[in-house]
Amino acid sequence: MKEHSVFQFVNDARVRGILAQVALLAFAVFCIGWLVSNTAQNFEDQDKSLGFGFLVQAAGFQIAPTLGTWLFDYEAGVSTYWDVYFIGIVNTLLVAALGVVAATIIGFLMGVMRLSQNLILRSFATVYVEVLRNIPLLLQLFFWYFTVLRALPDKRGKVELLPGVVSVNLEGLFLPYPIWQSGAGVAGVIMLVALGAIWAVNRRSQQRQLLTGHPLPFWRIAGGILLGALAVIWLSVGVPFEWSLPVFKETGPILRRGFQGDTAIVVIPEMLAVWFALTLYTAAFIAEIVRSGIMAVSKGQSEASVAMGMTRGQTLRLVVIPQALRVIIPPLTSQYLNLTKNSSLAVAIAYPELVSIFAGTAMNNVGKEIEMVGMMMCVYLTFSLLTSFFMNWFNKRAMLVER
Amino acid sequence: MKKLLTFAIAAGAMAITGLASAATLDDVRTKGYVQCGVSQGLPGFSNADDSGNWTGIDVDLCRAVAAAIFGDGDKVRFTPLSAKQRFTALSSGEIDILSRNTTWTMTRDTQLGLNFAGVNYYDGQGMMVPSGLGVKSAMELDGANICTNTGTTTELNITDFFRSNKMSFNLVAFEKADEVVAAYDAGRCDVYTTDRSALAAQRTKLTDPNAHKVLPEIISKEPLGPVVRQGDDQWFNIVRWTLNALINAEELGVTQSNVQSMKNSDNPAIKRLLGTEGNFGEELGLENNWAANAIQAVGNYAESYEKTVAPLGLARGVNALWSAGGIMYAPPVR
Amino acid sequence: MAKKSDIVFVREKDAPLLAPPLLESGAFGWFRQNILSTMNDFSSVGGAVRSLIMAAATLFIFYYSVNILWALIDFTLIEAVWSNPQGLKRELCTTALAGGVQHDGWHGACWPLIFAKIKFLTYGAYPFEELWRVNLAGVILIAGLVALMFERMPYRIHIGLFMLVIYPFLAFALLYGLGDWAGLPFVYTYDWGGILVTLVVALTGIVVSLPLGIALALGRQSKMPVIRGFCTIFIEFWRGIPLITVLFMASVALPLFLPKGVNIDNLLRALIGVTLFASAYMAEVIRGGLQAIDKGQYEAGTALGLNYWKNMRLIILPQALTYVIPGIVNTFIGLFKDTTLVAIIGLFDLLGAAQAAVNDASWSTPVQAITLYIYVALFYFICCLIMSRYSMRLERKLAKTND
User: Can you give the pTM of this predicted structure?
Assistant: First the structure.
């Protein structure tokens, strides 16, 4: 009887489950311990130590002018490695955000075009998707970067996209920036009030449509409010800002000629190339998602709405798109995350994002591989966690709508 | 299935080479070759052709060490390493010598558990500009766009130089040298900065190498040399004295072609170097003709330089012998 | 019965009468149906505007597509240099003005450069006399894959098992060698390169990640909290970080985690990174398959008295894996394209080898880079297109059998 109970004990699924988990835990602890002890030994041999003290040291290298360096007033030899870290994060987020917006627009356009009855549009979209999707992003990145570089005049020349206002050359894209005048605060408040009013009208319009089926003429009212607000601003404080236009010098020391960086917003060509490549590559995937999302809405739905007398636009806006979005948004979100992660390829063409300046230049100078790779991974893991939170939240919402 | 498993383990073990012991020389003798860390492609220093044949002055040093040990300059294998990987590769025992245009600095010598065995090339960071700009000196570079690849000190040096001269500039730093060349060639930058030797090497890759010139200013001292692990004096001595032997051979007029006949020379310094007099090789743990083998394999320092670095258009300059106006000076074999 | 919120739309007027059906045969009918039908609605202002926009977009896209296509054909076929009877290098693909043999204004692809570099682009620096080993491994691989594509193939299961289990070892023995005693001297991975490395990285990644992915997917579905937590964290960690950071970590920080003297060569490091990364994605694909299996199957298996492992092995996994083959192929396509990233950490995969060839001074011409990049792009495009077509066919077939 006693022997039997031992067998029973071992055969009990629950007990075995616990044993398996304990074994896994022990194994994991052992592995981690082994790695940690190896690392400790290696650190001792190489006279290294763990620690984040380097973050407050001054970083002695220059970083190309970008949003990050502007936000943190980066100055080589004065700013710290903390600044470098945050500049990297800001630049990653910047190119990711711009990429997300542009890729969404192009992706939706291409997705709809793939379903168009127009043969030319349809085949163009198909070729676009097949080509861009099947060529490695890194290759496309090189292509865009070096094509952009080869196509542009050097810094002593320029191509004027909008004469005197927007120009481009090898140093980048030069945009004017607004200089706020004294009345900017007042103007801002007025604009906020106007936007609040528009939001209220929008709600009112929706409620009215739900109750009576007749919406308010929303766009006209909103336009009116906006124009009114602008008129009030103009009457009270005048134009609240001035444009600083890019200044182009054709004389002086040869290296000083060209656009003067402090008179304009400079978008460096590395950033343009990363943006193009990420946008066009991701758009190809988004197009496929949009296409399958629209196709997932059964044809009966649009036929039914046409039968009810809706116009083609109304059918799309009120019936097809809301249903397609439910299918589209989850994979779309993961494409956005992919785009953000893919922005790390910018390291290959010197756009100063997180991997490039923090895990590249800064790591070369400080040599704290483990700390720095860890800090970098934290950033990406945070993005990824935020994305999955959003996804869960969205799925719950979408679930509620379902009947 | 069990056989497969055994096979798998054997296969895995092959990729993971044996444990390195304290005595690198014994280790190398057991393996039958010297494992040498080199760059991922820098003409003149260490560069592989399409069939994987390595050439360069850094490569020659490794071959000389292999010849000094085995009498055969081909008993050497090369591991291409990035700037980030190189020190870890050496201290973890993956390679026996790091001969990868590595700058000798105090931090590296004292804090990384490494020893520099000497200097085989005196270098310095320089700047290259398109001749068309008409720039004559680095002091005229205010407002320049500068391309470089992320090195350990390259960006720091150039930033220091511009800051101390109160000039403004933009830095575009790439991960790999190949992209720097491409971007500079496309006109993204006015200036390409890196070690002068590397400038000369990368310049050959430009569409029109003659349309560019290297500025006279040298903004840093970069003595490049072979590195070994700290704590193995015998191995350290072998590498250091192989390098010294090559330099001494140039001074004494011993060349690849006359090394055998020179063994009968009357000059005692040559006799000591080539092992016909004294016991110097055995003191190192090698055979007495160790230096003769090394010279036989790669030639003396001048021959190696002529073969590898000179074709880049780099004159000897400071790398000439002390007796010829340079600073190459090797302690005597005695 | 309808709640207030259900009244979104109220019909106010009759739907417009539809036009009579169009002529649908003949060239003109075809044209009208495929091109004109999207831009011939001039019955209302909105329709007219839409039609005009559509017409403009169609013309615009048609014009530029033809232009791009023509430029591509002109560059790669018409203007391109194909033969090199005199054995020239740089002169062959430069214009007379720059000292070459081509007429002024010439701009075309330089295919002899590819022919000259084809060995390097395919095998890297692999010794010439040992190339038969790579070729043999390649031939077996292609033969095996082609055999697997045909469903009627006798012994298909055996071939599949051979390719998955035995072939990797065989390929390893052939490529790496067993030592002189076996007549297969070692060829170290530093000499590997080109397509060889691309395929080795991608195939190893996928073959090794398959069992790992299955284990992780099962673990994530497990009822045991420790195992589930472990697998979830593992999967989410690797999915959350970009591959390039994984590769950086593998190439820079991995030696710090290992005991002194244990060396892993560069390629193997990249393989470890890629495999762990791929197994996380694989796990998610397989989890999708597991979730798609009807719960009744689990319950029926249990009711038959099968324990967990037998249930999985005999009932669940065969179904789930068949179901996710398209997903696996898609993961493989992604991985295949991502192998280009190993070029950033200094391995000579196809892109890395192409970059090395771009920097070969003896072929230095203005068209050198673009020629090589077109070749690489074409290689990836063709491979990925074939695979994605295959996966689509499988998807359609699976959809049919499921109906």
Answer: 0.87
Using an 8 Å Cβ cutoff, are A112 and C57 in contact? Answer: no
Whole-number Å distance between alpha carbons of C160 and A223: 66
pLDDT tens for each residue of B271-325: 999 999 889 999 999 999 999 999 999 999 999 999 999 988 888 989 999 999 9
Fold of C117-402: MetI-like fold (1.10.3720)
The shortest C-alpha distance from C19 to chain B (Å) reads 58
Give pLDDT tens digits for B58-114: 999 999 999 999 999 999 989 888 877 888 888 888 899 999 989 998 888 887 788
Domain boundaries, chain C: 117-402
Asked if A54 reaches chain C (Cβ–Cβ under 8 Å), the answer is no
State whether CATH 3.40.50.300 applies to domain B125-220: no
Residues of B in CB contact (< 8 Å) with A are 83-84, 87-88, 91-92, 111-113, 133-135, 140-145, 147, 150-153, 155-156, 158-160, 162-163, 169-176, 179, 182-183, 186-188, 190
Domain segments of chain B as ranges: 17-122+223-324, 125-220
**Does the fold of domain B125-220 match that of domain B17-122+223-324?**
yes
For residue B88, what is the nearest residue in chain C, using CA coordinates? C255
Task: Give tens-digit pLDDT for C49-81.
Answer: 888 988 999 999 999 999 999 999 999 999 898
- Residue pairs between chains A and B whose CB atoms are closer than 8 Å: 112
Task: Tell me the two tokens of residue C174.
Answer: 């052939």
The 3 state secondary structure assigned to chain C is: CCCHHHCCCCCCCCCCCCCCCCCCCHHHHHHHHHCHHHCCCCCCHHHHHHHHHHHHHHHHHHHHHHHHHHHHHHHHHHCCECCCCCCCCHHHHCEHHHCCCECCCCCCCEHHHHHHHHHHHHHECCCHHHHHHHHHHHHHHHHHHHHHHCCCCCCHHHHHHHHHHHHHHHHHHHHHCCEHHHCECCCCHHHECHHHHHHHHHHHHHHHHHHHHHHHHHHHHCCCHHHHHHHHHHHHHHHHCCHHHHHHHHHHHHHHHCCCCCECCHHHHHHHHHHHHHHHHHHHHHHHHHHHCCHHHHHHHHHCCCCHHHHHHHHHHHHHHHHHHHHHHHHHHHHHHHHHHHHCCCCCEHHHHHHHHHCCHHHCCCCHHHHHHHHHHHHHHHHHHHHHHHHHHHHHHHHHHHC
Mean pLDDT by runs of 10 across the 403 residues of chain A is 58 79 90 90 77 88 89 90 95 95 95 88 93 94 87 85 87 87 83 91 84 78 90 83 83 82 87 95 95 88 86 81 86 91 91 89 82 91 90 76 48
The A-side interface with B (CB below 8 A) comprises: 42, 45-47, 60-65, 76-77, 145-146, 149-150, 154-155, 170-171, 253-256, 261, 268-270, 347-350, 352, 356-357, 360-361, 363-365, 369
Contact C222, C215 (CB under 8 A): no
Subunits with at least 3 CB pairs below 8 A relative to chain B? A, C
Contacts of A369 in chain C (CB under 8 A): 252-253, 256
Write the residue in A130, A310, A355 that is nearest to C244 by C-beta: A355
Dihedral, C303, C304, C307, C308 alpha carbons, nearest 10: -60
Tell me which fold the domain B17-122+223-324 belongs to: D-Maltodextrin-Binding Protein; domain 2 (3.40.190)
